[in-house]
Amino acid sequence: MSTLVLELRQGDLMVVNGAPIRFRNRTRIELAAKARFLFGKQIMPPEAATTPARRIYFALQTAYIGSEEERDGGMQAARALIADFQTATTSALAREMLRQALACAEADDCYQALKLARRVMRHEEEVLGLPTLVPTRLPSRAEGESRTLTLGSAQGSALGPR
After folding, report:
1. Fewest 10 Å CB contacts: which of 28, 55, 89, 91?
2. Would residue 141 count as lying in a domain?
3. Contact 3/24 with Cβ under 8 angstroms?
4. Where is this region: Disordered (predicted)?
5. What is the dihedral of CA 88, 90, 94, 100, to 10 degrees?
6. Which domain holds residue 138?
């Protein structure tokens, strides 16, 4: 069985299957079953979705870790935002990454879709000269191995109203 071990610090935020969890003290948890989750700086608060690529990431995030009722709306928003971005951009690479991200999301592989959207966000940040909002990459989810990840404090992260 594949497991993922996470070490979280006091104040870190994690969303598992749509439920936000804030850790009151340093802890180590093991996810031993398939779950929809993001943690720490992977989670984009609504107020950070200030550019087209960031709005796509937020929509895909909602489709992935939102409540059952929110996920369909997240996918609909992602489809529309991706179509708009693909029409407006001159970057063939960005269009292709977004095509792949949407295909992954529609195949219920939203984690991979978020990784691709993160790459588009980095491209957008470079083109527009914006500060980097998110870490360079999401950790991979290799099957059949146990891994430990240590997170820094999530300063002020919030999902916003639920």
Report:
1. 28
2. yes
3. no
4. 140-162
5. 70
6. 4-150
